[in-house]
Amino acid sequence: MAGEGEAQLSPPLARSDHISLLEGNTLYVWGGCRCVDGKETLFPSDEILLYDMESGAWSQRHMGGEVPPVLSQACGAYLQGVLYIFGGCEHNGYTNQMYCVDLSHKEYSWRKVTGTLGATPSPRIRHSCWVYRNRLIYFGGYGCKTVSEINNSETFLLDEASGFWGWNNEAHMFEPASATWTEPQTQGQSPEPRSSHASATLGQKGYICGGLETQSIDIHCLDLSTWIWTKIDHHSTLPRGRTLHTLTAISDHKLFLFGGLSTNGEVLSDAWEFDTVTKEWRERDHVHKDKPRLWHSADKGRDGDVVVFGGSQTFLFLMDSVVALRSPAQSYCGDVLLFQIQPYSLSRLCEDCIGKHTFSVQEQVSWLPAKLQKTIGKRISYFMDNA
User: Are the CB atoms for 31 and 43 separated by under 8 Å?
Assistant: First the structure.
């Protein structure tokens, strides 16, 4: 039964350019865009979707308070039960406003973050965020600068086709406890300015990769304590260059990359694992190779699983005499993809079979050596029959 203010959804609403987070067994999804009657339409800011990872059921909740404007290409970050939204594009143009909502309180009441100290970053889209020591650290993005800012900036790459617009490689830190913005002075070899990249936090380091029109992907890390940048030299075969992909921390030294848009316009379905110790990329086999994705979301789940939601399977352009416009004829997705990173324990296999009955016994044990499949398969079947 749905609770008060909650509506059951079937099927889930397909979208891309959304924000998601996974807390316990609940996947939260906010915002995004979809195609309605041939027109790209943004989802309202006063609703949030909840997906129960155990039952596979979707529900929708109403949100109140100081609701943000409808946004696209914003950046979301989750810290101590609170979802923060910064930047993005609204109906009046790019913004540098911040909003937050405490998801532990079921009222889901938005609050506009005002009265901050320090210099707020300039308006931007398609940036990213690292969460570290109760701080939000934003990197990169695409936006507009004043003439003086451009002339005095070594962190901004001007988009010559768009006047005062361009990409940056700035790092800005926001501390919610004191509502203070600062721009740390970084050292080392900074990455090229970019947007539509992917980022992840591992320990005290923030990693970014992609977001450039290069044949192979690059990867950099910023020490979030010393503010020193390091460009990581690869010791293996590299993934193709891409944008609009995801990067997820899956252990204390490994990152998981999935999907994105290649430099030649192909929507990708490959998955890669990067070991930050050996500095090696390794392509991973998976069961979702027939489901290419870009502008999707990815979150770390139970047992190191990666939970991917939404995105688009196609990326088309409409050309006119001046600019290239994204086509509304996108193929939006509303399914949840689960990437199993490591073998499950027997108890996890039994729980999944009993709780969901989503996968067959054979699928659940297919990763095991043939000798063990029969024995453990029988045990799972016994638990299912007697649950």
Answer: yes
pLDDT, average across residues 114-137: 97
What is the pLDDT confidence band of residue 235, given thresholds at 50, 70 and 90? confident
pLDDT(343) > 60: yes
Secondary structure of the chain: what % helix, strand, coil (to 5)? 10, 45, 45
Q: DSSP string of 140-176? A: --EEE--HHHHHT-SSEEE-TTSTTEEEE--EEEEET
Write down the pLDDT at residue 351: 63
Q: How far apart are CA 88 and CA 42, in angstroms?
A: 12
Q: What CA–CA distances, in Å, run from 76 to 10, 19, 228, 271, 336? A: 26, 6, 24, 23, 19
Burial 194-230 (b: 16+ CB within 10 A, else e): bbbbbbbbbeebbbbbbbbeeeebbbbbbbbeeeebe
Q: Are residues 100 and 85 in contact, defined by beta-carbon separation less than 8 angstroms?
A: yes
What's the pLDDT score for residue 275?
96
Distances, alpha carbon 370 to alpha carbons 270, 342, 355, 374, 380, in Å: 27, 18, 25, 7, 16
**Residue 101 backbone dihedrals phi, psi, to 5 degrees:** -145, 130
CA–CA dist 180, 172 (Å, integer): 10
pLDDT of residue 35: 84
CA angle 83, 87, 90 (to 5 degrees): 110
| Contact call for residues 10 and 2 (beta carbons, < 8 A) | no
C-alpha torsion 34→39→42→48, nearest 10: -40
Give me the half-sphere count of Cα atoms (radius 13 Å) on the Cβ side of residue 184.
22
| Residue 154: band (very low, low, confident or very high) from pLDDT cuts 50, 70, 90 | confident
Total residues belonging to the chain: 387
